[in-house]
Write a structure and sequence with these properties.
globular
Length: 158
């Protein structure tokens, strides 16, 4: 299976990718869900970056979410819904797998661009799903679902 990073997703579903980046760019903090050792979910706040065709997750050293991802790379990332009930560009959720980048050119480029506190964990993501839910014309609940290798599906219901 082809690795589906952010750049590949942007090519496959450019409009949804643009809306997704805007939603994540609107606020600094978002919610990351990982799996604990016993399989139960853990949610934590996180800052994310879209750089060099990748969606990056940076974390404090030894954080529970980093340890969770080292053990089981599956995650879900929920965009901050913002203030009040206005969802702007809709509710956005990204699912995938995260793999730690410990050194090398990619980490050096990230450090140069972001200047994170040292030391830190850096994870590169591979996407398995992007879902957007929004209200259209105050009438329809619209859900867009993208998965690698599949066309973007749009579901509307009243």
């Amino acid at each position: 299976m082809t690795r589906m990073n952010w750049a590949a997703f942007t090519t496959a579903a450019p409009e949804l990718a643009k809306i997704t980046e805007e939603r994540f760019g609107a606020y600094r903090h978002h919610v990351l869900a990982t799996l604990r050792k016993d399989g139960s979910p853990r949610t934590c706040g996180i800052e994310v970056r879209f750089l060099a065709g990748e969606l990056w997750l940076g974390m404090m050293p030894g954080s529970r979410k980093a340890l969770d991802l080292r053990r089981d790379p599956r995650f879900t990332l929920q965009a901050n819904p913002g203030d009040g009930t206005d969802m702007g560009g809709g509710d956005i959720r990204i699912g995938g797998r995260a793999y730690e980048v410990e050194d090398g050119e990619a980490k050096a480029a990230y450090v140069k661009e972001v200047e994170p506190p040292q030391p830190f964990h850096l994870f590169r993501t591979e996407l398995t799903e992007v879902v957007r839910t929004c209200v259209e014309d105050d009438t329809y609940l619209v859900t867009q679902v993208w998965k690698p290798g599949e066309p973007l599906r749009t579901l509307r219901r009243t």
